[in-house]
Amino acid sequence: MRRVLLVSVVGLVASCLAQTADNAGAFFIWTDSVSIMALAIAVVACALAQGNAINKAVEGIARQPEAAGKIQPLLLVGLGFIESLAIYVLVVALILIFANPAASHFLR
Asked: Where are the domains of the chain?
């Protein structure tokens, strides 16, 4: 939760810097920094979530081996959803870095 708050504060500062055209370089630096931090946080969170999901699935299969056929497909679907979150953050970060909608304001 603290990390999300930190990213929100940094994003707020970046948007405040974006209000003036004199700070064009600072805007792009902050945008890139926020994108990279968000991606790092998402990757770490997804890795921890996937590790926890695999741990619980293996524990469940160890307790009831006959339930492995039901647990494994659900695990794979869950891992796909978890991984999609990191991919969504990557897409948003790439949009902010390379095709930032606010960049046209500074490139006039």
From this structure: 2-106
